[in-house]
Amino acid sequence: MFGKLKSLFSTDVGIDLGTANTLVYVKDRGIVLREPSVVAIQAGSKRVLAVGEEAKRMLGVTPANIVASRPMKSGVIADFAITEAMIRYFLNKVAPKRLWSKYFKPRMVIAVPSGITEVEKRAVQDAAEHAGAGKVFLIEEPMAAAIGVGLPVSEPAGSMIVDIGGGTCEVAIISLAGIVHSYSARQAGGDAMDKCVMDYVKRVYNLLIGERMAERIKIEIGSAYPVGEEKSMEIKGRDIVAGLPKTLTITSEEVRDALKEPVSQIVDAVRSTLDKCEPELAADLVDRGLVLSGGSSQLRGLDKLLAAQTALPVTLADDPLSAVAEGTGVVMNELDFLARHERAS
Ligand SMILES: Nc1ncnc2c1ncn2[C@@H]1O[C@H](COP(=O)(O)OP(=O)(O)OP(=O)(O)O)[C@@H](O)[C@H]1O
Ligand SMILES: [Mg+2]
Questions:
Q1: What residue spans define the domains of the chain?
Q2: How far, in Å, from the CA of 199 to the mean position of ligand 2?
């Protein structure tokens, strides 16, 4: 009886706790929040000044007394206290504290990278509980992405998903609702790409540029494979030698060259997962191909490059940034079943 009453009042929530972006899915409402995983804090006191979009605008332009930081690195929690503050802030934003929140805590489905350790899992769970969650269910990010894009994961046949976010590239082959093979490349996400662009510009032009500039260059003229016409872009930074602000032009060929390393790591991750695949599953993949999700899967030409390198059909998800959060939403509808199952066992 109490259980029924409780489920009437509490909201189930799904979270895609990403290195670059956090998305929150609320049962029966869908995705209600998408914000950068960035927190601005007062140096020394750890007081939170801004979270999400507002904090991201502060990255790289803060005075000495403000630190804008990204508490998630390579898909896992690098700063526990700040991650917790961030989850709490986002939860309050989607469901302002109610009188009964002490008694009716939301159940949460949180997507975590497939390669994370028990200690890292515990850290996510604790951060969510401290931030106000009731029961916490963790789901592996590639599984959530596969469910989110609508792959038939519970069928006795192979499906393949490649989710490339800010911090990780997760590859998984799924059959009968389980991950048969997976690979998590922690240095092959969008952050690594941005870093390569920064390094390139520094090495070739002696120009220092910020993270946000590097990301803009990647998104506007970056590519993994020659597709369409080549472009160029004006970029601004600080000249190392003269120590002064400087503007110069960079071409899409140069950016493709700068991105070679992380892009080849993505290709390697996909190929080595396919290498381990049983013949039956491999045969399924020849027909069904692989699906790309995650923000970095939108890098121009990446789908073409992977198709060329694997000889498999490659499809880009309709909404690559939402796949994981949508997946947590689908899983949420099974929570009552999971809870009953847990009580029975
Ligand atoms: N058009 C684009 N081309 C290339 N990269 C892009 C594009 N749009 C977004 N990105 C990159 O996608 C990344 C964010 O993707 P996403 O939100 O899926 O990551 P995340 O889920 O937060 O990270 P992770 O899953 O690794 O923890 C950023 O690095 C961003 O620069
Ligand atoms: Mg992600």
A1: 156-187+263-318, 190-260
A2: 24
What is the pTM (predicted TM-score) of this model? Answer: 0.92
> Which tokens is 26 given?
């609320």
Architecture of domain 156-187+263-318: 2-Layer Sandwich (3.30)
Strands (E), the chain: 13-17, 21-26, 30-36, 39-42, 48-51, 66-69, 72-73, 76-77, 108-112, 136-140, 159-164, 169-175, 178-185, 207-208, 232-239, 245-251, 290-293, 314-316
Counting as low any pLDDT under 50, the low residues of the chain are 99-100, 345
Q: What is the pLDDT of residue 223?
A: 98
Domain 190-260 architecture? Alpha-Beta Complex (3.90)
Structure tokens, 71: 């508490």
Ligand 1 neighbour 221 (Cβ under 6 A): no
